[in-house]
Amino acid sequence: MQTVDSLLDDLTGKEFFKGGFDRLIPMAAPFKEWIRQNDLKIITIGGTNGKGETVYYLEQFFKVTPLNVVSFSSPHIQSVNERIKFNQKEISDETFIDLLEDSYFEIEIFQLSYYELIFLCFLKFAKSKKKVDILLLEVGLGGRLDAVNLLDTDYAAITSISRDHQEILGKNLKDILNEKLGIIRNDKFLVTCLEQSSLRSVVKNKIKNLNIDYFDLFASDVVKKEDHYKTRNYQVAKAIFNQLSMCTIPTLEEISPSKGRGELMTLGIRSFIFIGAHNVDGIRKMTQYLSTVDSKTCETKVFDIIVISFSKRTEKEIEQCLEIILQSPCLCKEVIVTAFSHYKAATKIEIEDLVKNLITRNSNYRKRIRFVENFDKLLTEENENNKILVTGSYYFIGEFQQYLKSSSKGVVSI
């Protein structure tokens, strides 16, 4: 039997941003009518970093309610099925394949991309359920031209803004924010968690004639500059949830980490913590979070090694990411940069050259950073590196986790 991944590849090829939003409007029309007739509520989470974690927190909040939630997110860590869930349960392979095979007509007529086809399957999956109350959507890229924006949201969020995908979204933060704000709708709700006052002013100017119910977490002192990204994402999720329910929600400390966002695995005496941080701002926020003192233990999180790899990015971006980590000397003993096999991954040659250039420019890095071609060798090395942070690209995290699980029955997820 063909797998979901192989069928997706056969139908659309690999996942790349396609654009051409208008061609999808007729495809979405019957689903929008179904949403209207059934008075479903739509939540759309946009922003540069923090979208996936915010969606995850909302999923945990809705567990305490009788509401039925179908969620759509991207990217996935280990399985594409992670992108479509009903009440936190991933779509089955059988159902996913049936939906894909039922979509041949739309694929041809609307020339669907990989991402757009998955979103169509999400819509069909949601419509197949007997009772749905909420559609919970994570923007894939940008906002204005993302497939999720085919639906008119009731509750929108912008989690953060930083430079990413500039070739598509624009070169400066204001341009990027305007693309993200494309998800908002007149007379609806918007919450933002933007630290920069200049960006908050952009939001105010954008919505001044739209009758938006706007909640600025920074202006309201719900979030402060010293709050780490997990607290910020939690408060974004809470602000939206409070619009829909008055149920008591779990505290941040009571919520288990989601896949690739603080997830812990062990292999023998070694422990691995996985934190996706795929751009400069994500790396910066991660190091700030990990460098904070734990109020219970009065200790910082210190690792024997940090293992990191990257998707395709500019040389400057990757160097900035590595230097942020290297300039946090108390975070780890050694940084290991590696390569992985994925069509979106930076190449071995690119990464190896970057590491060499960093060491050439700063000899102090020589004992703190090295390049390892195959990350699987890290598990066979005879050393005392027992506490390991795996970070960088979510695609890399997924591949690393798959290798761990396939290499030994002793792998435990916590």
Number of contiguous helices: 14
Q: Could you list the spans in which at least 5 consecutive residues all have pLDDT below 50?
A: 295-299
Number of domains: 2
User: From the coordinates shown, what is the CATH architecture of the largest domain?
Assistant: 3-Layer(aba) Sandwich
Spatial order of strands in the largest sheet: 4-3-2-5-1-6-7-8
Query: Any idea what the radius of gyration is?
Result: 21 Å
Distance between the termini: 32 Å
Report the helical percentage.
25-40%
Multimeric state of these chains? single chain
Secondary-structure content class: alpha/beta
Strand-residue proportion? 15-25%
What is the count of β-strands? 15
- Global morphology: globular
- The H-and-E topology, N to C, reads as HHEHEEEHHHEEHHEHEHEEHEHEHEEHE
The main β sheet shows up as:
8 strands, mixed
Question: Under the CATH scheme, which class of the largest domain?
Answer: Alpha Beta
Average the pLDDT over all residues and give the rounded result: 90
- CATH H-level superfamily title of the largest domain: Mur-like, catalytic domain
Q: Provide the CATH topology of the largest domain.
A: UDP-N-acetylmuramoyl-L-alanine:D-glutamate ligase
